[in-house]
Structures are given as structure tokens and as C-alpha cells.
Specification:
Elements lengths: L6 H20 L32 E9 L7 E9 L22 E5 L10 E5 L5 E5 L12 E3 L16 H10 L10 H10 L5 H15 L1 H9 L15
Antiparallel strand pairs: 1-2, 3-4, 3-6, 4-5
Helix pairs in contact: 2-3, 3-4
Length: 241
């Protein structure tokens, strides 16, 4: 499904997977894993076989909960209406966030840095074949030294299956789910602080996080220890997950 059709990419994926197993066992991979991931098969031949761009999605209602770094961990919620849109007029209005992936359009760009975050030049070819170029003032329009890439799904969704939460996002989520007690004074600040610190290894990190939070909230920890774990209560007050 994620490889796509054809024997060539099937073999390439197996060879790549074999090296990935070795790299994982021998710890030969970089941390963090850099982006963008290169040499991927075009998304039109993989992702879009299931997530087809002609489908009309419409709007999505999303609520994001934040907790402020004050004593009472004040809740600050933002509700967003995301205009996702679609790319086929037979299924609904064409437009929205996915305008750049609409059927019939072609978006090309040139990036001046390895991470593809600095983009001085963009070219749009619409359904009628009309070409429009956009560039920053300092760009000389010399593309001989910059590779031109056709935009596809992976230019934005570069880690769709491996979403890693930042410390602050992880703490916000844990507090919203009740895994971290929002009644603890400054727990948002303290939890994010211990997660952002530098540690030698994972074992040291877990021990240091537990020790630091236990020292700052001794009464809470003592009450947790007096309770027996049950289906109704599990002592996960200090869990960063």
C-alpha cells in the first residue's frame, strides 16, 4: 500500500528496509532524523492511491487546548474552522488548504537550503496552461544552481505516520486528558521544564524527571503512594506521556 505498484519500487523498498533494520540494531541513524527525507517515490504513485485529491473534504472544526505557565495553569482554548476544501468541482467547491494539490494545477518551487524552508522561487501552472511565477526581490532568477521540485503531499506532510509531540504540546495534551493534575501549582511550567532539560540517556532522564517532580510536589506524591492502583485510578500524575 505504501510502496505502490510495480516490481522496481518493491525491490527498492525491500533493500531500503534491510538497511533500516541494520541501522536500527547498530544505532547508525542520526538523531533527530533530518528532514526532508529524500529519494521517496512520488506521492502521486503512493499516498494519492488512497488519499485521492479529487475527494471533497469541506471544512473541519478543531479545538486546541493550551495551558498557560501561571500558578493556576489557566486553560486557553482556540477553536479553528479549517477550510480544507477539495480538488474536483464534481464533488464540491474547489479551493481551501489543499488548493495547491488541486487536480489540473502544477506547483513547482526551488529551495535555497537543505531543509527546503527557504523558497525564493515558485511557479504555478493552472488548468488552462497559464504560467505565473513568484520570486523574492533578491532572487536573480538563476535556477541553474537550485533544483526545481514539483510539490506533492510529502512537502507538507513529511512525517504523517510518525508524529512527535514537542514537550509543550505533550504536556498540554496530558493535562487535557487528565493524566497530569491541572490543580498542581505551576505544573505546566515545571513539567515542560524537566522535559526540555538535557540528559545523558533515557534512563537518566526518566529518573531525573521523577525525582525533580517528586521534590516539588511531595504531598501529592505521598497521597498517590497511599492509594492502591485500580481501574478507576492509576498513579500517572507525573507521566510526561
Amino acid at each position: 500500500m505504501h510502496i505502490g505498484k510495480g516490481a522496481t519500487w518493491y525491490v527498492r523498498s525491500k533493500l531500503s528496509g534491510t538497511y533500516q533494520v541494520y541501522a536500527n540494531l547498530a544505532k547508525k541513524y542520526p538523531t533527530p532524523i533530518p528532514t526532508p527525507i529524500k529519494n521517496l517515490r512520488p506521492a502521486q504513485e503512493t499516498c494519492e492511491q488512497c488519499h485521492w485529491p479529487k475527494k471533497f473534504v469541506g471544512n473541519l472544526d478543531s479545538t486546541i487546548n493550551y495551558y498557560l505557565p501561571d500558578k493556576s495553569n489557566s486553560l486557553y482554548s482556540i477553536r479553528l474552522l479549517l477550510k480544507v476544501g477539495g480538488g474536483d468541482p464534481t464533488h464540491g467547491p474547489v479551493g481551501g488548504i489543499h488548493w495547491h494539490m488541486n487536480v489540473g494545477k502544477k506547483i513547482e518551487y526551488a529551495a535555497s537550503d537543505e531543509a527546503r524552508q527557504k523558497i525564493p522561487w515558485v511557479r504555478v501552472t493552472d488548468e488552462r496552461g497559464v504560467v505565473t511565477e513568484f520570486r523574492v526581490k533578491s532572487f536573480t532568477n538563476d535556477l541553474s544552481q537550485l533544483p526545481v521540485r514539483t510539490m506533492d503531499c510529502m512537502d507538507c506532510h513529511n512525517r504523517p505516520a510518525h508524529k512527535l509531540q514537542s514537550p509543550e504540546s505533550a504536556v498540554n495534551l496530558a493535562m487535557a486528558l487528565g493524566r497530569i493534575d491541572t490543580g498542581l501549582p505551576f505544573i505546566k511550567t515545571n513539567a515542560v521544564g524537566v522535559l526540555c532539560a538535557t540528559y545523558k540517556d533515557a534512563a537518566t532522564a526518566l529518573q531525573s524527571i521523577a525525582t525533580t517532580l517528586a521534590q516539588r510536589y511531595p504531598q501529592t506524591l505521598a497521597s498517590v503512594r497511599r492509594l492502591k492502583p485500580s481501574k478507576r485510578f492509576t498513579p500517572t500524575t507525573f507521566s510526561p506521556r
